[in-house]
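Appendix B. Raw example, untouched.
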Amino acid sequence: MRGIDGLRVLVTGAAGGIGAACVERLVADGARVAAADLRPPEPTVAELSLAADVTEADACERLVAEAAAGLGGLDALLLAAGIHWNGPTHEMPPDAFRAVLETSVLGTFLVCRAALPGFVEQGAGRIVTLGSTASLGGAPALAAYSAAKGAVLNLTRSIAVEYARAGVRANCLCPGSTDTPLLRRLMAERDSPDAFRDRHPIGRFAEPEEIAATAAFLLSDEASFFVGSTVVVDGGFTAA
């Protein structure tokens, strides 16, 4: 895809699942990648492996600075850091609700806040945030996750319309159920996991590589007119 080769990208939530798949796809397409998580992702094909708690403002400032220094600049963000809490809403501890929102929403905000001045100064920047089909509707037993992903979507839209004329493109990628260790744990807790899978018109869950391919497209020059878009990749789940 045009515009990926040489692109300097910081990926958060890069230690596994969709984030790790995005790192691998971007590197395969020629991007220069800084991969970040709570602990430095290892092993990784990324040029840099960094650690940061994205819920801490100072840590996010350091993370963006380290990525820019190590890559010789920064052109793009792919923000995949997130956690969940599964269970009845009335049983959810307030601290768990707070942690889910802080990781997904505050973390997305803080990394963007740290990177946006540099993007504005250079007149260009690309941001892909990770929402979910839960950004678009309720998710039983995942109230905090749904609230967080809905907020990520509208945060991304706000950044998009605020900074578009400064040359920054921000879009929210909303995957459906994807075959990651997290999904496997969630499915193990369901009474009939096959029934949930079969609710997808395509008849299966996504592979992380399929989501990563869409993320790479959104960061590429091919997506030059995508601004504030909600890009749903869910095998027909929300259309059914």
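End of appendix B.
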